[in-house]
Amino acid sequence: MLFFLRFFDYVLIAVALGAVFVIKFYGDNQDSVIYGAIALTVTIFLFYLNRNSIKEAKKADQKQQLAEKAELYTSLLSNNSSLDNNTIIPARTKALEYSQELINDYKKERDLARVLYYVLQISTVVLSGVTPILVLVDKIEADQGWLKWLPVICPALASIIASIVTSFPFEKNWMAANTAVELLEAEQENFILGISSAYRCYDATSEAEQQQRISQGIEQFIAQVNSIHLKQVQKPSDPQTEKKDSVSDTATAS
Fold this sequence. Notes:
Radius of gyration: 28 Å
Shape: flat
Helix content: over 70%
Number of strands: 0
């Protein structure tokens, strides 16, 4: 399904480019312009619907994967166990969905901050580097009035962009979000496989003890996920320090 929707995305982009080509190069023909405009409008509308369909398909696929991961834990239990999987699996799936939502949010924040940081840094370097060249071009092409403004505009833009980079800690936000993603994914895998003693129940001697450990493991997992999330929200300081503190808390809880 995802493959088909993505392929349809490329088809719509090709149709939109074709419509723009027709409008641009056949502008003298009124019928061509009308048909091109209609095709472009319909294509944009279908592209928007298709992007929403892709997003929903990704969510459904991710939800199915989380449900399979939740079932993976119960396969580690003894074959003779009669625990109610109708209660265990939905609870574990819900806990995994909650942690995955936080991971997705932090990934979006990380990617946005990283892109802004690199774009602004490269823009500052480029604008600062071309300023001496523009000064020389201005002297050579003295009859071009607009060139006289470029040696003034480029340094001003470079200064503004440098101030933005200094004022807004894009790099720290990027590193902090990346740290949160790593910690949450590690905790999620720990919970799925039951690696630490806090999430392990398949070595219990009785079913009642297994049920109790499973319930406690879910509560511990939610508490640990909330702890990682709150540290990122309340302490936007050094990401490395936050990572060490979270790892220390995980070890203590384990």
